[in-house]
Amino acid sequence: MTWYIIRRVLQLIPVFIGATLLVYFLVFSLPGDPTAAICGERGCTPGVEAALREQYNLDQPFWVQYFLFLKGVLTFDLGVNFAGREISTIIAEVFPTTARLAIMALVFEAVFGILFGLIAGLRKGKIFDSTVLVVSLVVIAVPIFVLGFLMQFLVGVKLGWASPTVSGAAPFSELILPAVVLGLVSFAYVLRLTRTSIIENVNADYVRTATAKGLSRRRVVTVHILRNSMIPVITFLGADLGTLMGGAIVTEGIFNVNGVGNTLYRAVLNGEAPVVVAIVTVLILIFVIANLVVDLLYAWLDPRIRYA
Amino acid sequence: MRLARISKVVGVALTAALALTACGGSGDDAASSTDRPIVVDGTEPQNPLIPTSTNEVGGGAVVDLLFSGLVSYDAEGVSQNEMAESIETEDAQNYTITLAEGKTFTNGEPVTAQSFVDSWNYGAAAKNAQLASYFFESIEGYAEVSAEGSDVEEMSGLTVVDELTFTVALNQPESDWPLRLGYSAFSPLPEVAFEDFEAFGENPIGNGPYKFAAEGAWEHNQQIELVPNEDYDGPQAAQNAGVTFKMYQNGSTAYQDLISDNLDVLKTVPTSDVQNFKNDLGDRWLESPYAGNQTISIPYYLENWDGEDGKLRRQAISMAIDREEITTVIFNNGRTPATEFTAPVLEGYDDSLPGSENLEFNPERAVELWEEAEAIEPYDESEPLTIAYNADAGDHRTWVEAVVNGLKNNLDIEVSGLPFSTFAELRTNATDKTLTGAIRTGWQADYPSLYNFLGPIHATGAGSNDSVYANEEFDNALSEGLAADSVEAGNEAMNKAQEMLLEDLPSIPLWYQVAQGGWSQNVDNVEFGWNGVPLYNAITTK
Amino acid sequence: MTDGVIENSEKGKASRGDVPVLQVKDLSVDYGVDKVWVPAAIDLNYEVRAGEVLAIVGESGSGKSASSMSLLGLLPENSRTTGSVKLNGREILGLTGSKLRQVRGRDVAVIFQEPMTAMNPVYTIGFQIVETIRLHNEISPEEAKERALKLLDMVELPDPDKAFKSYPHQLSGGQRQRAMIAQSLSCDPKLLIADEPTTALDVTVQAEILDLMRNLRNKLNSAIVLITHDMGVVADLADHIVVMSKGRIVEAGTAEQIFHSPQHEYTRKLLAAVPHLGQGGGGTDDVDITAALAAATQTELRGVDHDEQMRRERENEARLEEREREADTSRGAAVLQLTDVAIEYPKQGRVPAFRAVEGANLAIYPGEVLGLVGESGSGKTTIGRAAVGLLPVAAGSLTVTGKEISHATRKELFELRRNVGMVFQDPSSSLNPRLPLGESIGEPMFLAKVAKGADLQKRIETLLDQVELPRAYRNRYPHELSGGQKQRVGIARALSLKPKLLVADEPTSALDVSVQATVLELLKNLQKELGFACLFVTHDLAVVDLMSDRICVMRRGKIVEQGTRDQILRRPQDPYTQRLLAAVPLPNPEKQRERRELRAKLLASAE
Fold this sequence. Notes:
- The complex is a heterotrimer.
- In chain A, 77% of the residues lie in helices and 0% in strands.
- Chain A is an all-alpha fold.
- In chain A, helix 1 (2-29) runs antiparallel to helix 13 (273-301), helix 9 (205-213) crosses helix 10 (217-247) and helix 11 (249-255) crosses helix 12 (260-270).
- Chain A is globular.
- By secondary structure, chain B is of the alpha+beta class.
- Chain B has helices spanning 3-24, 57-66, 113-124, 142-146, 177-180, 191-195, 197-202, 251-259, 277-281, 307-319, 323-329, 363-376, 397-411, 423-431, 451-458, 472-483, 487-504, and strands spanning 38-42, 71-73, 79-81, 84-89, 94-99, 158-162, 165-169, 210-212, 218-219, 223-228, 243-247, 265-266, 285-297, 335-337, 385-390, 415-420, 438-444, 507-519, 523-524, 540-541.
- In chain B, strand 15, helix 13 and strand 16 (415-420) form a beta-alpha-beta unit.
- In chain B, helix 16 packs antiparallel against helix 17 (487-504).
- Chain C contains 24 helices and 20 strands.
- In chain C, strands 6-7-8-3-9-10 form a six-stranded mixed sheet, sandwiched between helices. In chain C, strands 16-17-18-13-19-20 form a six-stranded mixed sheet, with helices on both faces. Chain C has a four-stranded antiparallel sheet with strand order 2-1-4-5, covered by helices on one side.
- In chain C, strand 11 and strand 12 (354-364) form a beta hairpin.
- The longest helix of chain C has 21 residues, at 306-326.
- Classes of the chains: A mainly alpha, B alpha+beta, C alpha/beta.
- At the A-B interface, helix 2, helix 3, helix 5, helix 7 and helix 10 of A face helix 1, helix 8 and helix 14 of B.
């Protein structure tokens, strides 16, 4: 098992190199000159432009730029963005915020998704089940920005229960509404997944055995059915963490959260390859680790799984 | 775990969540109490907060409050002295500038002639890569300093006479040069800046009406906190307890904050809310025209659009656009149809210049002109007209599509909008002269002068001359105007030059910009200046 | 047809109370399907006393499981139960809530058929047993663990501690079923319901479990209801028997009565259909297995008079010699020949290669049926697949009609496959559900370009006649046919190219007993008629006895013994073969008792 973990961690290296190379190349190939973005509508004098190019190595061929970047990573110097700020500072600033948001969304979708899915699965075909299915379908179908703006308006502005935007410090209390919005679609998926899993397991042989032993329905559900049903759900949640971290762009925009998504978006627009690659690298790390944790969790949950 | 226990846990979690929400909710909003800073919307400055480094609105708004130059502009755009005591000239080419006594930076350093000269030299030199360097191009010695790869650090035209006096020699006479001096690029810098520009750009020390609340008041992508500068005694003194710029990623979010009183002043109502903001805000809104416009430039290097036939076609296009309709419907009257190339708030503006009828909606005449052009040289249909714009900001798509539809209907030609995904891409094409059709352009005045709308855009080889208009007569007219001995004479000459533009239409003016802004229930005295920016210092809390 | 209460058995068991442990009166179970009540069991009446085993026998669809599950309310929601069920005089039908839960597990326990799925895969055995114990008893976890370990010991698990900590998938099938039994017995139930407890197990393991159940019955004096379709198992264990068909009890009586003088036609048909090991093909060839085993192992049977035993053994020997003399030694070239064959499942990722078969030597001659017997994991299916070219040969040589298959090219294989036909185990999944049957049958001929068009149709019709199916069936789809009919189609397809060798891989394991008999008969007739050689792979010794001329016994990838039917059955040499033969239950209570004795002796001598 230890070897398995070590092997998985070592796999990070080729993944890192491959992904960063690809992303760097993509950003590099974006049409548009980064200096045009820096200089704005008025443009710059040729002298200034030349100086800018030199400062950011924009004149060098792709391989040189990539190599300089790699060299920087290995010395923990991620470089500066076009505004002159240290990229490592930027990352240290935005990742914790998005992480908090993502974790809260994960907790929301896990707790409520599993709970509602459990009840729906047990009462298959009844009112609760049908309602929940329709609602989840609507949630999945309606685009997230519609949901987000709607909730912001209703809860934040009209009812005044929460602040419509998130302030810079982004404390947990302010992140509740954005977390709910962010986690809504995943919540619907978790709900359906749990429901299906429960329905499958309700008819399993061992449930009949447990009932035949004389266990109360409650115990059969919580001890026997639930644990078996959690396996696909946990897998989904683990993968979702990575997705939440990297993709909260829309939600962050709506609630003005100073997070990864927005930073990434602006960096892509400006053609700031080092920033994009740095952020993507951290995201890859998170993804890989989350997947590893999920796999290990999986093995713990289901003793039939053993890794060579 | 029993189901009951699960429900209990969930119940507790829910209650806690709601309680926390209530805590972090609107309790923290701009609670009405006097003597608190006003919260206004801003965007993250793209560059360090050094005046010569700043070329966009986000940084500009902050820098304008932190630094004070020789002069500033009042609400109407009229110059008033700040650091300067007097600015004298005999020939509009050589100026002697005397500073007022006793002015200091917030760190105690005195504001001296050296402060100005050093700052301007720093801004102009190519090796410093300052984005606003072109503002110094009139000054003698600029060419050497700004040449690519140049090592020269000082402009020959600047000379320090004594602690409070210095002289400036220009390359040519320019009667409106003093008008420019209110632009932030001309601000002075304290010596401490030159020791470490990087640190300075993060925590600038200025001499303006406001200063940083503390070191680190610039929380990136979140907010910048400014408090009044007690040492400042100029005409723009702060009437409030401070200004906090809150960074927003998109306008809609800012608007939501405004109507829930989390934000005090919003300087641009987003397009999505243009139709309803007046209802939402009651009487807490204004529409204030400012010195800016929106135009469409058509490059001369496109076959269809140069020469005599090109001129006629441009006029046809201009007359086929119903500016009235677009500004009413799309902008909810938030724009004024253009009648010439500058802006109404400027001194010298004339709305009925000869040739301004080319900017009026006249579809029949448009068709006639188009046919006349056809007769001279047929229109090459393999290069249909497109209007390029960037899709990542500013919501240009709506009005571009409206213009496009108008042209299609009225002229019956093939025309379409051409979105570029990033601003950088759009500008790269323009700079490299690889546009395949028209491009949306616009101008916002750096300083309140007619010349500012004409020279930097349409003079031959000018930095923002996207259409590559090259008209020697026009250039001469501009020079004449600059050499005029009074501002009025100069304006007359400028308007004469405009007549040529109205005839040739290198770019087609669409409308003048109007600032649509709103404020919360907790502030008063909100007014916007000649440049569409709120006069922050005058805003008071209730 | 007898109905009503089962008469008291003469067998005179010891402690038998006056009140039967279980009294079932007029029990009916209906299922609600599409708003109509479909009956599953109708008006059942029976009784079970303490220390007695009641066997409920029937084929699939007879209602035996449904009625038994209804006793504890374990049926799905869309069912309806009426009648009366009394446990020790107390009515338990219609109980709900905590009262029902008290009965379940404590007074009545159930042992299910598939121990792999009947236990929760994510919890240890120990956890699940302790859970049961603590549910019905107020004792501490440590005490419960003690009790659980004792139980695991009682069910004769080799290492109770290890088993306690193991997960279900870590134990073998037999061990799992023992654990299941331990769990059921944990609260000393008065009634044990065993639903097909040994169907999923190998023959030798089945014998062990049956032993265990018998011991427990004697020790604990619990009443047992045994639900099964296997008459051999019934003969081994049951005191009383109830025969069910289509939801009704058609006959009831003691084991002796039912086996020796069955009254109802269905019972008779059922008994006749069960293949007896030793019975042979035509009934004239009965082999006295017990005698053979006794002779081979030199054991003295206790239940049989010594002289009688000697006589039987001698007769056995005599027949064997006679057979050997009669044997037709002219054979011709082998249709299938394996020489030192090793078959390997290749390395997959980190899982090392697995040698399924090692050093196999066997040959099948034209017109001969070779029965390849073994338990699960013995490698018999692997050899069957290799014979058709579905698995590569890792070492040695495998020839089909003289041509080497082990290194054949695709083209050569294609030619070779014409000579071999295969009948698979599960007819439902080996027939393409989207093809009409006629096409399934005709496909081999079409692909081999042997016939097409009208000629092809004629051949299909001929084949359908041969497998005794109406010609009109060629337009039907597989889901419209029963299991037996589908298997006939499978046989027709396998025979379509007139192969020289037919490989039948457990062709009747998935079928009901009565259907099995007809299909086997068909196969035998076809073999005589068409003269193909047949490799018959199965785990059921009785079936092999019916069909084969020669038998080959496999164990863990190796062939342990092979010879003619008479040789293997009358004089089994290898100890494993002997144990295997001894383990097969005989549907005859007296003979089964003899067999049990033998088996016990064999096992004792093996250790």
